[in-house]
Amino acid sequence: MDGHLSGWIDESGADRDQKERIVIISYTENGEEWTERLYNTLSEEYDVLCAIHSEGAGTYGRRSKIFDVVEGGSLRKFHHSKEILQEEYGKAVMLLFVCSAGTAVRELAPFLENEMRSPAVLVMDDMAMHVISLLPGHLGAANEWCREISAMTGAEAVITTATDLHGRFSGERFAEENHLEIENPEMLKEVSKRVLRSQPIGVYSDFEIRGRLPKGFFLVGKKGQRKKAYAMHPECGIVITADRSIKKKFEVECRMFMQEGSDEKNVVIF
Fold first, then answer.
1. Domain check: are 127 and 246 in the same one?
2. Which of 95, 60, 57 is nearest to 76 (CA)?
């Protein structure tokens, strides 16, 4: 699998328990067929749990075909999805509901308090006509997952994130691609607001900057100076550093730290 998700694939030969977790929850027999197809595609690279509603697991005495395809430990029946979500919500990198959007929202509601534990959440109808990026997850990867599931199923990807729709800078995607840990993800919303308003955004980095900065972004401080003169220092900015005790650089700022094990610790790419 290519694109931003490739960084999540376990390519080290680690055993199944160390793979990233994906949970697919389906409610109907049609949904189970799509769950089975996705399991066959994803299970080599991810630890996939298929959860099927007990009333959808075969009718008229016929057992659903999914039982013959999916490994025993990767398949569970449930009466209420709360049983699955209580165990899996904080573990999974991606959660896919195969049902109506209304059902998914009602089931998710009790689990939405902690944004940093949130997986990327998608919902797809059981005819695979549309797949919707519902919740970004703490790394903001739902839009990429939405595109991937769309490619696998033929469903139309529905993405409503303003920065994506306008082709603007996405802080979540930038952090993911550069293996950066976001210290204060709530401030990304403030950055995004200003990006959409075409307000200047400052970038302070301890690391070498490669690539072209997005329109309206300007280097300040250690690794570069502003390329255009502003009467005032930008109010809002992104700080990319290895020093967690660094002094504040902007009135409104989002801080990002290089994750351990990153291959290029001295380079950040826009």
1. no
2. 57
Q: Do 66 and 136 fall within a single domain?
A: yes
At position 265, the amino acid (one-letter code) is K
Place of tokens 């210290």: 183
Token pair of 165, please? Answer: 């729709």
Span 212-230, pLDDT tens digits: 888 888 888 754 444 444 4
Are 184 and 53 in the same domain? Answer: no
Q: Is residue 83 part of a domain?
A: yes
Return the amino acid letter for 261.
G
In angstroms, the CA 195 to CA 199 distance is 6
pTM for the structure as a whole? 0.60
Domain at 203, CATH number:
3.40.1390.40
| Same domain, residue pair 214 and 87 | no
Beta strands in 44-88 (DSSP E): 47-53, 75-78
Q: Quick check: 79 and 27 in contact, CB under 8 A?
A: no
pLDDT of residue 66: 76
Contact by Cβ (8 Å): 19, 46: yes
Domain that holds residue 193: 171-269
